[in-house]
Hints:
This protein is of the alpha+beta class. The chain is built from five helices and nine strands. It has helices at residues 11-21, 30-39, 71-74, 102-116, 131-135, and strands at 2-5, 44-49, 53-59, 62-63, 85-88, 90-93, 121-126, 140-144, 155-160. A five-stranded mixed sheet has the order 4-5-7-9-8. The termini are far apart. The relative contact order is 0.16. The model has no long low-confidence stretch (mean pLDDT 95).
Amino acid sequence: MGIRTAVLSDLDALAAIEAACFPAAEAAGRDSIARRLEAYPGHFWLLEIGAGEIAAFINGLVTDEPVLRDEMYENAALHNEAGAWQMIFGVDTLPQYRRRGFAAELMEHVIAQAKAQGRKGCVLTCKENLIHYYEKFGYQNEGISRSVHGGACWYDMRLAFPGP
């Protein structure tokens, strides 16, 4: 088992995992994932098991904007490698690998990477039933999001790193 960043040849596997993890209205399509991979492959963290099988991944762009906007999901050009905030679009774990700590291991890795890269913190949106899960990592609930992604009700969550 190991964590690595994505390469374009991971596209089909990532699209299949995304489709297995989210309702169709919320899941990123293959073309959207391809644009993201081309723009910021270093911000796709994959957890592999066995012979290179991807069990889970986290992805998202980096920006100076402090709030995750719906446009960010589709517009990979909004990525700014020098940005202050690591946005997290999805925490995807194949159903057969859930409840094994894979998502938590990936989240800890992403948080460590964002700190090492000098970011101000990480930002994500989640559904109400997952607020408690993300609070375990130190995320703070900032209330109902303006996001209407996929027609769902989302909550803004922020993990701000201590300043110097």
